[in-house]
């Protein structure tokens, strides 16, 4: 029996859950998350995308109920109202939208496309990518590339790092400022580059692994230095702008990091050159999830702390500027989704057609051998044998051409009854105890649904 599968997906994102929900949803690693999902019986494929703003899991299972059960277990530690579960069609469409940047905090940002690729490689390594997710994820990457090369969806602010820089610039002048970036991962790298491009005088990169901080610092075209996290007391108190983007479970910056040795706010330095009274304020943008900066830091009179929620004004402005491009990308996603559906259907029909040809080939071979054994003799040449074989091949191809066309049309119209009938005509024993062939997927025919996981008695 030709296998069938259904895609089901679950997600916790910056829109559906809190920072704590995202932290609870995050697996040990993307590979580990895929392995956990594959351990569920009847889950054939799995893909996990885990970033600071989203944790998404996709499974291919024998039916939707199996997929939903696997996702319930995967998101067991997350508040149920923070988890969004989608059916086959909506799961595929959402994946395309994610890769294109339509679901990001910063509309059209570029970082997510690389994250989708990395998650794909992680899932492949963990054995989670089969025929269905291979088609889906590679299609998503293709859509993401098209969105960024054929539209202006990524013009201007293209990451949370650049959004953080713009937000900081609204509070303090960046030119000739001293900046501190805590965290040398992808988000920290984008923030550091954005600050350097904005004209800051110095960028200090602090990281748990100093060698990674040194590598990032070497990439920047401004005065840079690297430091361990243990030196945050020194550099945080001197920086005009601080951007944090680590994966720490606990805050790494407290109020005392921004205070001078005398116990007063380090930003209170008397009149500054820019005419501000009691010195210039410093800005801290916390991009960490969970938070990197303790809430007490915001109580200091000369420290302004922003978190991801505060970036909404910047991202809303970006969304307004990119509204036309977003509509273009949405149309692109719709078209590519339709093409993905057709690709699945063609592949499914081709499997059925291959089974039909295999059955016909076996019959042809059997009858050809019988006929040739009767005709062979001293006067039956190899050329004559080739003519008979060629005639048999031509008969099979001509006889199967019309049903092949009809089967492909039936698959495109989700007419699986016709496909079953055709197969049974060529093989009366087709299906056996398993019954008729199942429809491949509810592609394009089912109403897309988006639900939250049901609360259990333990909740």
UniProtKB/TrEMBL annotation:
NADP(+) binds at residues 183-188. The active site is at 52 (nucleophile). Keywords: NADP, Oxidoreductase, Porphyrin biosynthesis. CDD domains: NAD_bind_Glutamyl_tRNA_reduct. The keyword ATP-binding does not apply. Signal peptide: none annotated. It holds the Pfam family GlutR_N. Possesses an unusual extended V-shaped dimeric structure with each monomer consisting of three distinct domains arranged along a curved 'spinal' alpha-helix. The N-terminal catalytic domain specifically recognizes the glutamate moiety of the substrate. The second domain is the NADPH-binding domain, and the third C-terminal domain is responsible for dimerization. Homodimer. This is Glutamyl-tRNA reductase. It comes from Natronorubrum tibetense GA33. The lineage of its organism: Archaea, Methanobacteriati, Methanobacteriota, Stenosarchaea group, Halobacteria.
